[in-house]
Write a structure and sequence with these properties.
two-stranded antiparallel sheet, 252 residues
């Protein structure tokens, strides 16, 4: 419990209850909730009553297990159906661009390509081909590899993707064009938690990218920090990667 960090303890407890219920597809009992959340059954029962009243929790049978309610699910689906991803993520892009003084992109996967949804250019701009609404090959961009790594999380899935959208074109001498090597590379991306573009799409340009999941198993977008090679050493790329991964997880 972290009530000391929450401005409203009862709201925080209600949210913790919903989070815990959401972990149990077959439902969870009052006793189990009380044990897992370290809450008195009396206060837990009152909070569950309020959540049931608003449709955010459900108990199909009296005394039976609790499930997420239909209103909870409907609210989530309405949000995803009408979500303006660019507006939601843009504040993060602005902060990252200011923090690193570099250009920041957001992109989504579309088949074998990425589509740039947003771009914030740093004061010290660099010449790049990327534009909002523009496209690049997924296999040789940081955002593309971040998206591929979790959208196609096995070697077999990557090979199937490559068979469908390949052959993997060479953009620079560093571009990975072999599907097996790409699959091995993407496994490293998953282990590291972020993707790197080491001048694989444009000579002299490097970037670090992290996936945006929005609560889903597969990413809905990816965010990258891009700079010229001279400003993106291996040490700085590691620093940016760890910071980027944390920032994306905290924001979205």
């Amino acid at each position: 419990m972290t009530e000391a960090q929450s401005p409203v303890g009862s709201v925080d407890r209600a949210l913790l209850i919903l989070q815990e219920i959401g972990k149990h597809s077959r439902g969870v009992t009052l006793d189990e909730l009380a044990t897992r959340l370290s809450l008195p059954k009396s206060s837990l029962h009152r909070l569950l009553g309020a959540l049931k009243h608003r449709g955010f929790a459900a108990q199909p049978e009296p005394g039976g297990p609790y499930f997420l309610g239909t209103e909870m699910l409907a609210t989530a689906f309405r949000f995803y159906e009408t979500m303006d991803l660019r507006s939601l993520v843009r504040p993060l892009l602005l902060r990252l661009s200011e923090e690193f003084a570099e250009t920041v992109h957001m992109a989504m996967l579309d088949g074998g390509e990425v589509v740039y949804l947003d771009k914030v250019e740093a004061v010290r701009t660099i010449t790049m081909t990327s534009v909002i609404g523009g496209r690049d090959a997924a296999h040789c961009t940081g955002v593309g590899k971040a998206l591929l790594a979790w959208t196609y999380p096995t070697d077999e899935a990557i090979r199937a993707w490559s068979d469908r959208f390949g052959p993997l074109a060479s953009r620079t001498r560093n571009t990975i064009t072999n599907p097996a090597k790409l699959a091995t590379h993407l496994d490293q991306v998953r282990q590291r938690g972020y993707a790197l573009d080491l001048e694989e799409n444009e000579p002299g340009v490097r970037c670090v990218a992290a996936s945006v999941f929005m609560g889903r198993n597969a990413p809905v977008a990816a965010v990258s920090v891009t700079a010229i090679k001279d400003r993106m050493s291996a040490a700085r790329m590691e620093q940016v990667g760890h910071r980027l991964r944390r920032a994306v997880a905290e924001q979205v």
